[in-house]
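Practice record 12: protein with zinc ion.
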Amino acid sequence: MKVIVLNSLSHSGSTVLSMVLSASQNAISLGEVYQILRDEPSKWLDNNESCSCSQSTEHCDFWGPVLRHIQTHQIHDINERYQYALQYFTTHYGDDSILIDTSKGDKHIDIYRRIKVDYKLIYLLRDVRSFAFSQSKVAARQKRKGLKKIKGQVWFQFLKWYFGNKKRLKKLENTTIKYFQMGYEDFCFNQNNRLNDLCDYLDIPFDPEYLSMSNAKHHVLMGNPMRHQKDKQSAIKYDSSWLSDTRNAVPCAIFPFIIAYNKKHVYQK
Ligand SMILES: [Zn+2]
């Protein structure tokens, strides 16, 4: 079994990229594995949310048996939970299967290291202007009160993007972990070439057909809602609505170092 870890800040395109990669033979995306395994299994088994495979969590052919096993055997240690999920994945899908994990944060990276599982890591960054536009929109919709209102400010999201990515990339640079870094925009505007580079790095056969996502295989319980919208899974459509938003102008002017960082890390291969 191979593991592909797709790491990024939230809203950085990891769902789309995981769908593309899961269209390759033997690959299956399990979404944010860490965020599912750290919770009590009952949280997932008892809720009415369905898996992206269109079954309820209880009847999903991956998460159903895995979460029930963790619940019945009262496995509390996150390392052991991960170990069981990986073991079930191999038994159920075969030795050649490839697991795609899009967990947020970096705790799962430490777990893979602790349980001695080899993985290939892809670090994805989305253009700061697009990130800040969508994140501030989401925060404004949530009608936050008091200090949390700040999340609706584009300049705040610029800083969050900068310090968040910088911290993660620094941590990766300071370890021996090999990783492939890619800008989401760079991927969207050069789909064939970037996919080819990715397949090379991941050691999987290249096929431009993956970009149609028609053969995507996934069991995603949480994350981007596009996982349920089959019509959106036909081709990568880049949401460029941030281009016409003028609220980016001031943060771009006051944070030139963020714009320079953005240019270097999102658009340079
Ligand atoms: Zn499922």
